Amino acid sequence: MEYYQLTQTNLTDYLKLLPEVQLRFSSFDSLKVQEINDGNMNYAFVVTNKLDTNQSVFVKQAPPYIKVLGEQWPLTRQRMTAEINALNYQVSVCPEMVPEVYYQSETLSVLIMENLSTHALLRTELIQGRYLPRLAEDLSTFLAETLFYSSDFALPSADKKAMVSKSSNQEMCQITEDFVFTYPFEHHDMNDYNPALSQSIIDSIQKDANVRAHVAQMKFIFMNRPEALLHGDLHTSSVMVNVQQTFVIDPEFSFAGPMGFDIGALIANLYLSYFSHAHKSSAESVNYSQWLLQTIDDLWYKFEAKFLSLWSEHEQSALSTFMGKDLTGDSHQIFRQIFLQQVFSNTLGFAACKMIRRILGVAKVADFMQFEDQKLRAKLETQALKMATTMLLNRQSYANIGDVNKLAEDVSSI
Fold first, then answer.
1. Of 164, 152, 140, nearest in space to 307 by CA
2. In this structure, are residues 248 and 90 in contact, taking their beta carbons and an 8 Å threshold?
3. Most CB within 10 Å of its CB: which of 127, 158, 199, 269?
4. Average of pLDDT values for 324-331?
């Protein structure tokens, strides 16, 4: 079947042809097709049986261009192949955190999957100040399992190299290289600044040679360390939640890269949420701000513990170790500490770059954009930028995530 664009008009006829989808609907005569317009890259639809709303699927298709910009902005459909590959991998190691996929087609660049109708975007829930008791537990599990099982510590060397080769996602990586690590740190036409944000604050990043050099280090690490198969765009709008469950969605930026990039992206967005609440003086806001910092703390320490546990269990079951025989009894433990400390410093560096790009770059976050008062927004942006630059420049000096949380508290009080 050759590629063609699915629409509200022809989608039902397409679904009728698929045995995997036929199992999901008792009838195709009463289907409601709703287009979802939130995404920038792809087309998305929710299809529901009006006679039984429990019968529903989510359909996503990648066009050969960036949807929001139109056909004058071509982009290969390889991103959907990368997403399909990533989802298949994630289901194999962490199925409880990934929506069930009913059908996939690289030819049409289509995914048909579980409709998470009882869940909401994590970003939306954070803006509303909702507590999510499973969040750190679930996301630390997703990070530990997806990162460990695609690493050299779990895969034979040949299998790891084959995975790296298969997971090339060049165009989407180029987008990240440009829009996360390059454009926000120069006065590029694609950047978008809050008019109330002072030029001196912008210049303190774009014209500071030290800051730009450290960003270049993070860009180089991003481009050259295929440590594990990443989600590639793990922010708070790539997670859907309710109080019982957490699902990670949209891994179209997936590629083999440095572990700290996924962790840093998530932590960056949680810190942005923190600043959006911490400026309020009410007891409710103070408590929620502290919950966000505790969630960040729990997320890192739970990830670290789970990753180490998986590492130890794998080596015991495989009866072999990454380092080979330990002649002193201490070398494995020392290496693991060194490795995870490097992941931690990379996490902070990537988090800093992600925070900065959300303020100086083109892609904003609703956590800040919800505030119509540009001066208030500029205050929060300035706080986040100060934290990000400090965290970036000193990322190798922090002993633990608690010290970074203390930095966030200190900056938010200015």
1. 140
2. yes
3. 269
4. 84
Nearest to 11 by CA among 37, 38, 47: 47
CA 266/CA 142 separation, integer angstroms: 12
Asked whether the CA dihedral 353, 356, 360, 361 is positive or negative, the reply is: positive
- Enumerate residues 6+ apart whose C-beta is below 8 A from 114: 57, 58, 99, 100, 101, 102
C-alpha distances in Å from residue 317, one per residue of 183, 311, 332: 46, 10, 16
Among the listed residues 239, 259, 235, 250, the one whose alpha carbon sits nearest the alpha carbon of residue 358: 235
Identity of the amino acid at 95: P
- Summarised one tens digit per residue, pLDDT across range 375-392 is 999 999 999 999 999 999
Helix axes 259-278, 331-360, angle to 10 degrees: 50
The position carrying tokens 């957490």 is 246
The whole-model pTM stands at 0.96
**What are the CA-CA distances from residue 191 to residues 97, 356, 357 (Å)?**
34, 11, 9
Longest Cα separation, the chain: 71
Which domains occur in the chain, in start order? 11-114 (3.30.200.20), 120-412 (3.90.1200.10)
At 213-254, the pLDDT tens digits run: 999 999 999 999 999 999 999 999 999 999 999 999 999 999
